[in-house]
Amino acid sequence: MIDAGRDSDQEHWSNLCEIGTSSLLFTPDEGGYGGTGSDIGALFEVLGRSLALEPFLSSLVAGKVLAGDQRHLKVFEGLVDGSVKCGVAYEEPHSFYDARPSETRAVRVGLGWEISGRKIAMPIGTSTDYVIVSAHCDTPGTPGVSLFLLPRNAVASALNSRSAIDGGMVSSLALSGLQVPPDAVVGEPGHGLTRLYRGLMFGTFAVCAEILGLLQEASELTLDYLKTRKQFGAAIGGSQVLQHRYVDILVKIEEARSAVTSAAAALDRADATAERAVCAAKACLTAIAVQVAEECIHMHGGIGLTRELPLAQMARRLVMTEHMFGDADYHLQRYVELGRRESEPPCLKD
C-alpha cells in the first residue's frame, strides 16, 4: 500500500468494517456499539501496534463533527458502517494548528456560498468520498466559523494528495471561488467551531492511543533484539547499561498509559474537563514518543533505520504523530487556555 501510494486498501477496509471496526467509534445513540473513551482507545492502540494505515482516524473526526446534524444523516450513517470515508480540512499554511480558519473565507452568493482559501495536512488521500471544510464567514448575520460538507467530485480538481514520511497519505486543498449549495452547511452557519473542536478532541485522543500502541510494539521488538543479538559470544541484553536504558523505556510507556487512561476517563465523563485532559495527554505523549523511538533505534544500531525492520516504520509514524492535531507546545497552550476558561465566572465566558 505504501509503495502504491494509496491510503486505503478496499478489501482490507471492507473486511475491517464488516466485523464492526468503524461502528466501534460511535455510541449506540449515534448508531454504533462503542464510542466510549476505552473503546476508541483500545481500537487505536491495536491499529498503532499493527501500523494500520486505513483512514479510521478521519472517519472518527468527521463522524464526531457531523453527529446530530440531520441534514447530513446519510453521510454520517455511512461513516458508522464504513461505506463512506470523509476527511476534515481545517488546518491552514499559517495556522500553526489553530482550528480557527483565518485564510479560508466563505461569503454568501445568492442562496448558496462561495469558498476560497487553502487547507493542508488532511490525513486522508484520494479514497475520501467527502471533505468537511472549515471557513470564516464574512457575511453579516452569520459571523464566525462555518463547516461545509463537500462531495469529492466538487473538490477533485483542488485536491492534492501525497505520501507522508510514515507512508500514509496527506492531502491539501486549494479552493478559489468554489460555489456550494446552501444544504452543504453542517449545523448552523457561523456556529461550526464547537463541532470542529469536538471532532479534533476525539481525533487527538485517538492519536494518543495509537502512540501508546506503537510504543508498546517498539519496546517488545527492542527487547527481543536485546535477547537475540550477540556480540563476543553473549547477548547484548546482558549489559547493565542497556538493561537500565530499557527499564527507562518501560517507565516512559507506563507514563504514557496513565495519560491515555486519564484522557479516556475524561471523555466518558463528557464534561468541561475532557478536552483539557486530552491536551495534557497529547503534550505528554509527544515528548515520550520521540524519546522512546530514539532509544529503541539506538539499541538496535544501524539496522534500526532499515526499511526491512518494522521499527523504522514505527519511528517514522511516531515522528508524524508529533504534529498531528497540534504539537506539545500547542496543547500546553490550549491546556492553559481551557483552564482559565474553567476558572472564569459564567458571565465572562464566551
Radius of gyration: 21 Å
Order of helices and strands: HHHHEEEEEHEEEHEEHHHH
- Helix share of residues? 40-55%
The major pleated sheet works out as: 8 strands, mixed
In the predicted model, the low-confidence regions spanning at least 5 consecutive residues are none
Can you count the helices? 10
Gross geometry:
globular
First and last CA, distance: 45 Å
Name the beta content range.
Answer: 15-25%
Average pLDDT, rounded to a whole number, is 93
Total strands: the figure is 10
Question: Structural class, from secondary structure content?
Answer: alpha+beta
Q: What kind of assembly state do the chains in view correspond to?
A: single chain
3D architecture notes:
The protein is of the alpha+beta class and about 350 residues long. It is built from 10 helices and 10 strands. The chain has helices at about 10-20, 35-50, 55-65, 75-80, 150-155, 195-230, 240-270, 275-300, 310-320, 330-345; strands at about 85-90, 105-110, 110-120, 130-135, 145-150, 160-165, 170-180, 185, 230, 235. The strands form 2 sheets. Strands 1, 2, 3, 4, 5, 6, 7 and 8 form an 8-stranded mixed β-sheet that branches. Helix 6 (about 195-230) packs parallel to helix 8 (about 275-300) and helix 8 runs antiparallel to helix 9. It is globular and about 80 Å long. The termini are far apart.
